[in-house]
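Build the 3D complex.
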Amino acid sequence: MRSAPLRSAATLCLTLSVLAHAAPPPLPAEHLTVQQLPPKSPHWVYVYDEAFNNEIDARVHLFDGDSYRRLGQIDAGFTPSVNLSPDGATTVVATTYFARGSRGARTDVVEFTDNATLATSGEIVLPPKRVETAPSLFNIAYSPDGHFLYVAYVTPAASFGVLDPAHGKVLGEIDTAGCVLVIPWGPDRVSSICESGRLLTVTLDAQGHEAARALSEPFFDPDLDPVFVQGIPTTRGYAFLSFLGEVHEVDLSGARPAFAQPWSLVSPAEQGRWRPGADQVGAIHRALGRLYVPMHQGGEGTHKDGGTEIWVFEMASHRRLARWPVQAAGLSRVLAVQVSQDPAPILFAATNAADVAVFDALSGKLRHVEKHLGQTPWMMLNP
Amino acid sequence: MRSLDHLFEHSSRSLARRTSRRSLLASLGQLLTGAALLPLLPVDRGGRAWASDAKSGGPETCEYWKYCAIDGFLCSCCGGTSSSCPPGTASSPITWIGTCHNPGDGRDYIVSYNDCCGKTSCGNCECNRNEREKPVYRPSRNNDLNWCMANADSNYHCTVSVILGVAEK
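Done.
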């Protein structure tokens, strides 16, 4: 009666013994190393994370739009200003540190990170004046030749600092008469946006001191239809979108700013109902001449609500090419967009839920959603 | 007080530099008026005019009527109230200004959005509403700036909404 169970037990023991002998060899000992970055790719994107819930701990995440992996991190302190050098080799962060972490003496500093290694490569201490505000390309910016670095100050008096990044020095400060931010152009010019809807342009001499200044005519109406300060680089300057969806293209290739006739993202029937809204409110593929804008339905006061759709436009003809509903793909509202500049472009869209979606920028096909890429990803930069 | 000294030093220098620029003077005037009026303002004690209704929610909700142009964490959820900073923080002497409609009495009110400063961000009850809010080139109407910027401890913690008075039509 007991022979069958005994046989089963013996068989089990034999099987286990064979399996034990057939197990693979143990893993070899590992050598602790520091990962090196692969060669840079046009599909990388630097994601500005304000870390709004614990704001002294902002950071920039480097994310690969092909492998969908985080490649590394750049620390960014408190409400930082972030940008890339014109050659893409350096990330520059202007930030504030408090001596006791969250309190104590304030130190403003510009920090440079080598984008080939993500190691800090230098710093320049600033006067405690830098603007602490929502991100844009114009809170800190290099001159197009990389010779100067400009840092916007608001105390709330407005001015900007001129820095020499090669020698690690602050060269001086230039009062901007209430106009704000630093839009770099030409070899030595900086424009700031004025409350009157004009641009104030300061021309610098070789030492970084003011040589001349000029005020443009108004190019938008700040009362009726203000522009977002998050200008989008074009082939000849920047495009500024207005709250109601007008596109103001500013040509900075000549001796003074030239303003094209504005054109609209919305039809007369859509005006006032559909509008742009986000923290980074547009991206342009310059070679293809395509503009991507997060759009939503809403009225006055919804200009930061984020897009439920991404609209695609042809810059030359002003024609709308596509509407891509993002909520259909399960995404929450889009707060920031960026597009790679290569011939097979990727559109990155950061959402209100801190996800970053990766789209084929030509077809609109959703390739990937990276969940929770940081806490509050409000701007994306690419080389 | 050091921060106030600092602020007025900056403001005086700005004024001296820009006496011909009326728009800036007007903006700075608005900022300073908001700061100067603060000690004289009515205190939010939950009277009829400040009462919430079902539509606008209470002071711990983003829908509360006084928050129509706020961007930050509600001090009501961080140990303070809609018009008082949490313990251990310091109020910002400079502000941005909004105009909000109170459905409780049908009036429009000018409100000052002061930041509370000196501790890291509260992280509770984030609220972002932007009625009549303008970009940073119009600072007196902008809610993106860290308005703790002129405080001795300029770290941002949360934001209050303080009634300055009835908006004149």
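The helical segments of chain A are 3-22.
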